[in-house]
Amino acid sequence: MNIQEQWKNIQPAPDDDLLSLMDISAINKLSSKDPLKKIKRNLLCNSRWAIVITMGCIWLFFRFPVWQLQWCIGLLVLLTLPIVVITLSLYLKIRVPHPLSSPLLQELERYERIIRQWINLHTYLGLIIYPVSIAGGFLLGTVLTGKPFEAVMSKPSTIIILISTIAVLMPLCYFMDKWMMHKSFGRYLAILKQNIEHLKSE
Amino acid sequence: MSEKIFLEQIRSSQGIIYKLVNLYANTGEEKKDLYQEVLLHAWKAWPAFRGESQFSTWLYRICLNTILTQKRKPSRVDYRETLPDIPHQPGNPIEINHEIQHLQHAIRQLAETDRAIISMHLDGYENPEIAATLGITSNHVAVKLHRIKQQLANFLK
């Protein structure tokens, strides 16, 4: 028997896992584990938090009229706004389920591209937003102590502590974020890349 | 009505889902997850199905796109000269059953994208159709098929 005949002879064995799903009510109860769907939910959550935090920053801006703190908050808001735009545009780009007009290679490349964009977004957060946030948090803490702000900030020890805090926390946050991304998507991206290269190769 | 037609079509084409999922799933849990993802995606995409292609072709695309974009445990893709032995399974014609298992086992040793190509070829799709589904050229499919058949022939001799 040649392999074509053997292949045609493969009949679905009674498979309860498949049979139990041959019902619309059962299908409607399912929740997709599609990676892009998870990222989409995450993007929506991130953009909501970004908006809430931005509004909180604006409130702080007017509540504590210390120019150093206001500069930091202003910078944070300016840096956060493009993130909100990028996050929402990435959210809108993700269409789940797959568009049927797209062949497999395009779909694989789309998944890889979107996930890498999402990872780059987190890298941007790690390198730009976190240091400004840490500095802002430090300055806010100084204001909240009630002590004269200029007097506290003029001490060399305060500046050293501020710089040390940023120097420690920034790489810590950045590498933790990188590690979490790798844990979540490292292997998946490697398989996607392997399949893309294999499809493209002779 | 649309639900009824969808289910009828899925039931008549369930062999496609069964064959493809069993070519890619590495564990029972993964198989179950893939069945769920395929059916969920097919149901969500059903309103957009206009009948420009056959339902089986449409379902094939959904299956392959879904399976190959899901997070799965990595499959082994090392090319080997021979297959490890697989035990005889009790049941109807033992020789045929064993040959079919041997074939499935051999196909599972191929690279993931090669499994897609050979399964479409064995299901009677022409090279241009395979190429359109995968997003590569027809010539490319022909070259890959030639290599895949050689690999399979080595596995199955």
Comma- or semicolon-separated keywords:
heterodimer; A: 202 residues; mainly alpha; 8 helices; B: mainly alpha
Helix content of chain B: 55-70%
Overall geometric form of chain B: globular
Q: How does the helix and strand content of chain A classify structurally? A: mainly alpha
Name the shape of chain A in a single word.
Answer: elongated
Number of helices of chain B: 8
Strand percentage of chain B lies at under 5%
Low-confidence stretches of chain B are 77-95
- As a percent range, the share of helical residues of chain A equals over 70%
Distance between the termini of chain B: 50 Å
Encode the helix/strand succession of chain B as letters. HHHHHHHH
Radius of gyration of chain A: 25 Å
Count of individual beta strands of chain B: 0
Largest inter-chain interface?
Answer: A-B, 48 and 62 residues
Strand portion of chain A? under 5%
Task: Explain this structure.
The complex is a heterodimer of chains A (202) and B (157). Chain A is built from 8 helices and no strands. In chain A, helix 4 (35-63) runs antiparallel to helix 5 (67-93), helix 5 packs antiparallel against helix 6 (104-144) and helix 6 (104-144) packs antiparallel against helix 8. Chain A has 202 residues and is mainly alpha-helical. Chain B is mainly α. Chain B is globular. Chains A and B meet through helix 1, helix 3, helix 6 and helix 8 of A and helix 1, helix 2, helix 3, helix 4 and helix 5 of B.
Summarize the structure.
The complex is a heterodimer of chains A (202) and B (157). With 202 residues, chain A is mainly α. Helix content of chain A is 80%, strand content 0%.
